[in-house]
Amino acid sequence: MDVVPGSEQTLPFIVQAPLAGDAWQASRAQILQAVEAELPRAGGILFRGFAFKGEADFEEFARSFGHELLTYDYASTPRTKLNNRVYTSTEYPAHQVIPLHNEQSYSLNWPMKIWFHCVQPSQVGGETPIADSRLVYQQLDPAIRQRFAEKRLMYVRNYGNGLDLPWQQAFSTEDRSQVERFCRASNIEFQWKDDGELSTRQVCQAVAQHPVTGDWVWFNQAHLFHISNLAAPVRETLISIVGEQGVPRNVFYGDGSPIELEALEHIREVLQRCQVSFPWQAGDVLMLDNMLVAHGRSTFQGSRKVVVAMAEPASAS
């Protein structure tokens, strides 16, 4: 098994199969050693050239690192459950970009590890760009970073009505009482509307300190949840239909005050500057430390299948 640090970048660190098509199980010990040594440093490892026999084999690979895989609860995007605890990647239309983000950083609970397995790369595009969240933190304007860290963020969500995920899908249940228990346990304010739909708000971190490395990271989805992330015509139409308070999702500072558009644009610029992208090859598996590295999705043409697994739950301290 060959380990190949990037020639001009350290992200992702590349682990190459000894021979193309080798079963990953034959290199299990070396893979575990590489992850232990390199994941805290690089934040992401690309396993290339190994043979994976469907979602079950990929799930076994993700489980081999010693943690039970997680379900996708309190979801923000549509996915399909495949094999036990393997899911499709976010099912947004191919022409849409998914901005860089750390998985479930819009909440107080998130996975520490996330794996992406490319079953079928698209003909054009379809990359899963990544970015070092430590570098993002360091390159942000210190005044903006401090303001976000001190004020924190309030995520506001209005489910259903054909505009966003139904609450039943987001919380993986048809039972209102189960949703209420989850919200109370997670410090999420909730309100049932007259039409039976759900509205929630939750105050969360903007930055976080990695529990193992001690690194500070930019860890939120303000730039993604904020209504300014929508194209202007879509935004204006949406507000004309449901009003500013009824949009599917938005984000404010933790005290409810609006976030400056200039700050959000600066954040988006820094994320773009820190982005690293590589073309998928069939069989690739990308393993990320979800706090150290953000991920996204490029637009694509043709069929594309990338599946996901998550593990090792963590919570805001």
Automatic annotation (TrEMBL):
Keywords: Antibiotic biosynthesis, Dioxygenase, Oxidoreductase
Positions of the TauD/TfdA-like domain: 19-309
Cofactor(s) this protein cannot do without: Fe(2+)
Single GO MF annotation: dioxygenase activity
SUPFAM superfamilies, sorted: Clavaminate synthase-like
Documented EC number(s): 1.14.11.-
Gene3D superfamilies recorded: Clavaminate synthase-like (3.60.130.10)
InterPro entries: AlphaKG_dependent_hydroxylases, TauD-like_sf, TauD/TfdA-like
PANTHER family the UniProt entry points to: GAMMA-BUTYROBETAINE HYDROXYLASE-RELATED (PTHR10696), TAUD_TFDA-LIKE DOMAIN-CONTAINING PROTEIN (PTHR10696:SF56)
Name of this chain's protein: TauD/TfdA family dioxygenase
Lineage, broadest ranks: Bacteria, Pseudomonadati, Pseudomonadota, Gammaproteobacteria, Pseudomonadales
